[in-house]
Amino acid sequence: MDARLDIAEDMFGLNPECNRETGARAFLRVAILPLFQLAIATIHSSDGIPIHGDRCIQYAPVPRQPGAVVLMTGDLSDEICQSIAAEFNLGATAFIQPFADGQFGLRWFTPTREILLCGHASLASAHALWQWSAAPKDGLIRFVTRHSGELTCQRMNDGTIAMDFPATKPEATPLPPMASDVLAVSGPVTCAGKTAMNLMLVLPDEMQVRACNPNLGILAGWHQTGVIVTAPALTPGIDFVSRFFAPQSGIPEDPVTGSAHCVLAVYWADRLGKSTFIANQLSTRGGQLAVHLLGDRVELRGHGTTTMVGKLVM
């Protein structure tokens, strides 16, 4: 049991030092371990909520961004959704609600809060629905969201999943005080603006983005969700680079952030005079994204790879 517990903790990002039998480990024993056993045996119980563990990334062929997808067979309260996301402790857990008209409700939770939009968990959701045969494999999936309107996903001929998201223009906002010191860079730092999802800061070059080592305690007070740091790319064929820090959302640094590119595309389109980009996100795990600005929409493409399937026992 303990060996399987350690493996499950590693796969779900849970803290192996936690000794709380009434907290993460207790939940893990009654819920995650049966899922893990079912997954490796490819057996499904007759009861429970389907769960799909995906690793997804826009554009790059190597899967790098983990996310979980829960297909709800009934209503789950906000509190239960948040508890499940906290136990999985991934960048985002998506919750899908099938509707009678063929559309799907979609919500995203980080370990600490519900968020307005998430790229990789949306991609994972489409991938999971096709894997479950819950949506036509060659059809367009329409997601209805609470805060981001209708989103669509479609499988392309090259095997990628094309996601249609809203483009977001940043609103002017003052540069946070002591920004260079807080980010631990030489600067200068300029503020490109903010959206409901993020604050965007611009550095002179890629090397400073790579070197950025922010004081997360202070940075968490700059925006309610997260902070983008971006700069022009040095590598030929790459247009811009970025990193995304969201300690206020339970994510010290997100490996690859599709939703951030909804505003990055708008910003860099003005600066570079183009609408199609290849972007690198410079987290430790890292990822490369293909981004296409189409008026007031942004198209992101990526692949999904299944790593775990099972039932969430409530």
Give a short overview.
This protein has 8 helices and 16 strands. With 314 residues, it is of the alpha+beta class.
What does this structure look like?
The two termini are 20 Å apart. The protein folds into 2 domains: 2-167 and 302-312, Diaminopimelate Epimerase, Chain A, domain 1, CATH 3.10.310.10; 179-295, Diaminopimelate Epimerase, Chain A, domain 1. It has 314 residues and is an alpha+beta fold. An 8-stranded mixed beta barrel has the order 1-2-3-4-6-7-8-16, surrounded by 4 helices. The chain has helices at 2-12, 24-41, 78-88, 119-131, 179-183, 206-211, 216-219, 261-272, and strands spanning 49-58, 65-71, 93-98, 104-109, 114-115, 141-144, 150-155, 161-166, 190-194, 199-202, 227-232, 240-246, 251-254, 276-281, 287-294, 297-312. Mean pLDDT is 81; it is low at 1-47 and 55-63. It is globular.
Overall CATH architecture of the largest domain: Roll
CATH topology description of the largest domain:
Diaminopimelate Epimerase, Chain A, domain 1
| Helix share, percent | 25-40%
Q: Which radius of gyration do the C-alpha atoms yield?
A: 19 Å
Q: State the total count of DSSP E strands.
A: 16
- Global structural class: alpha+beta
CATH class of the largest domain reads Alpha Beta
Under CATH, the homologous superfamily of the largest domain reads Diaminopimelate Epimerase, Chain A, domain 1
Low-confidence stretches: 1-47, 55-63
Distance between the termini: 20 Å
How many independent structural domains? 2
Whole-number mean pLDDT: 81
**Inertia-based shape:** globular
List the strand order in the largest sheet. Answer: 1-2-3-4-6-7-8-16
Order of helices and strands: HHEEHEEEHEEEHEEHHEEEHEEE
Q: What count of helical segments does DSSP give?
A: 8
Strand content: 25-35%
